[in-house]
Task: structure prediction
Amino acid sequence: MVNYRYLGNSGLKISEITYGNWLTHGSQVENDVAAQCVRAALDAGITTFDTADVYANTAAEQVLGDALKGQRRESLEIFTKVYWPTGPKGPNDTGLSRKHVMESINGSLQRLGTDYVDLYQAHRYDVETPLEETMQAFADIVRQGKALYIGVSEWTADQIRAGAELAKDLGFQLISSQPQYSMLWRVIEDEVVPTSRELGLSQIVWSPMAQGVLSGKYVPGKELPAGSRATDAKGGAQMIERFMRDEVLERVQRLKPVADELDLSMAQLAVAWVLQNDNVAAALVGASRPEQVAENVKASGVTIPAELLATIDDVLGDVVERDPGKTLEGMPKTRVA
Result:
């Protein structure tokens, strides 16, 4: 069964393995299989579910809401996000303007079939909306009881600091950051993590398996596995491309003895590794089959000894991306239409 951790400097506990439905519900996975995966998550003790309005252009929220029907709402932590274009993608169907934020929370609640979400997250930083406008909208949503807590996703350390200061002035607190983080992608460690510790935020990390590369299923010189992320023309292949160099894949294969020593699969090792960072509250893990959920949960509660953590660093060496500037580099420079 999964363990639980506090989210940021709040009293909210979440499951350290959190079920996320990006790239699965409403697109890659049929709705009945998605419901089976959610039931498997609940059976494994996962209480925290993360989605976003943009996933499958709102369909993922609907699928998750349907799958959670009949569950005791107070026993769940439901997270969603706002920023990216949704619906017909009109001029105000994107960004973090007050108009889009206020309308988006209402749409998300309707699709999820709930009166409130436990965490509402700014899916990216909006360079074209005053931060004061965005944070005031979040403050009002909290006061209205439509969201209990507020977080951000893929914000830089400076942006987190500015947002946290405004939130405090407005009477609420930012409690979480949702960045990409894995053995291969450590860009948050030098700036975002120390800033978050100082300000009382913790990380809910996505892609702990580096889009599946750290599972070891991609072997240099061999054909890509059928149906894998690397063969997904809908977007998965583009996301995983940065990790598909032979140099990276060869180093990943050399992690297998470490996983074997801990009696873990390589995928479980990848999830357990991100959870060794004490600023990480949860690892986001999706599933296309119910049995994957039970396997992922085995990473919960694992302690990787310091000597094996050092071995992992030695094996991966210079293929690890550590540049904190990558967060800003990957951020939209203008509002996405």
User: Anything to note?
Assistant: The chain has one domain: 4-329. The beta strands are 4-6, 13-15, 17-20, 48-50, 77-82, 117-122, 147-152, 174-177, 202-205, 280-285.
